[in-house]
Amino acid sequence: LFQGGGVYWSAAAGAWFGLPAIEAYAATHSAELGARQSGVIRITSNGGGVGQAFSLGAVYASGAGTFAVLSAIRTHYFALGGSAGSLGWPTADATCAAGSCGQPFQGGAIYWSAATGARVGLPAIEAYAAAHSELGARTSGLLTIGANGGGFGQAYTAASVYSSSSGTWAV
Known about the structure:
The mean pLDDT is about 90. This protein has a four-stranded antiparallel beta sheet, sandwiched between helices. The chain has a four-stranded antiparallel beta sheet with strand order 7-8-9-10. It has a four-stranded antiparallel beta sheet with strand order 11-12-13-14, with helices on one face. The protein is of the alpha+beta class. The relative contact order is 0.09. It is elongated, with a radius of gyration of 18 Å. The chain has helices spanning about 20-30, 30-35, 70-80, 125-130; strands at about 5-10, 15-20, 40-45, 50-55, 55-60, 65-70, 95, 100-105, 110-115, 115-120, 145, 150-155, 160-165, 165-170. Strand 12 (about 150-155) and strand 13 (about 160-165) form a beta hairpin.
């Protein structure tokens, strides 16, 4: 190992520069990541960190930890600017249940299902909506609100849900 990383080698891939956090993650998640597609990329946005592309996803290491972003969530994340975009760095791996997946990021979360595709949401609003089925179906994407101290909102057929530092509620 060298200061700031190391040179790794395998018969299949040859030699590459890697970082211990990403290499350790990749070693335990190789089946879901696929083949290495890039070297380590340093990214200074949103507090800084590093990323590395694989054929089925990307691994990011930042102050938030080391996590993969995979499949349709990765496609949507990249379309929103990836770690340099408004969502920032991943803060956990995706979790999937009953045909849908969600992954948290510094600035929100990406939710995916075959029925709806990928969309950005806010965990507080998602939890509120899950506990209040009377809201009905979601009718908008996540809206950023700058007035009155800021926050986020999302429309449903029977009400709108707002979330800020004051809490989360329906109107």
